[in-house]
Amino acid sequence: MQLFLDTTDTAVLKDLAQTGLVDGVTTNPTLIAKSGRPMLEVIAEICALVEGPVSAEVVAPDLESMIAEGRKLAAIADNVVVKAPLTREGLMLTRALAIEGIMVNVTLCFSAAQALMAAKAGAAFISPFIGRLDDHGADGMELIHDIRTIYDNYDFSTAILAASVRNAAHVRAAALAGADCATIPPSVFLELYKHPLTDRGLEQFNADWAKTGQSIL
Length: 217
Ligand code: G3P
What we know:
Blueprint: E1 2-6, H1 10-17, E2 24-26, H2 29-35, H3 39-49, E3 54-57, H4 63-74, E4 80-85, H5 88-99, E5 104-109, H6 112-121, E6 125-128, H7 130-135, H8 140-153, E7 159-162, H9 168-176, E8 181-184, H10 186-193, H11 196-212
Parallel strand pairs: 1-2, 1-8, 2-3, 3-4, 4-5, 5-6, 6-7, 7-8
Helix pairs in contact: 1-3, 4-5, 5-6, 6-8
SN-glycerol-3-phosphate binds near residues 6, 28 and 129.
């Protein structure tokens, strides 16, 4: 499973990328606003920090401007993935850019039918929003299962990118459901490897090792 960071915080990104376990980055207009920086500058900086796909979202209201924005974003770096909303225009944008060889991540997906349409349009990634569906009283993980089945039934190559992930339990369930990738906030990245029993066990091992008075090096 590929792990992407859902952030525009380049300092945090730089730090976590050192683990070698960050496979890509996703952003959205809210995260760009949070950075307080010009979007094109932030995306370029992120693309230089990670080799994997970096999603940058179009914001224009009409198809023609969306296509122009998508091309401009894609020109920033080879690893830019244009993010398109799951609307009629967004699907048309996806199709147009896919024909040009530009990868598209279709975002704001809340139903399996929407995911089917995105795959048919040629999306490289589909982003089902698990956490927001849960908040809405639905079952976000059921959507991941449904999309996995549909994509497997028809051999769609669109990657399922579990988004709106709130905790490590979401990542576990998405992995079990067969999501290809998950995009997670930096706090969840840390949560994925932290365990109190690991800390307690290590403390004990270190204490016992100290008693031996030995050194390996
Ligand atoms: O970037 C898309 C998605 O991950 C947003 O998550 O927490 O705002 O629902 P959230």
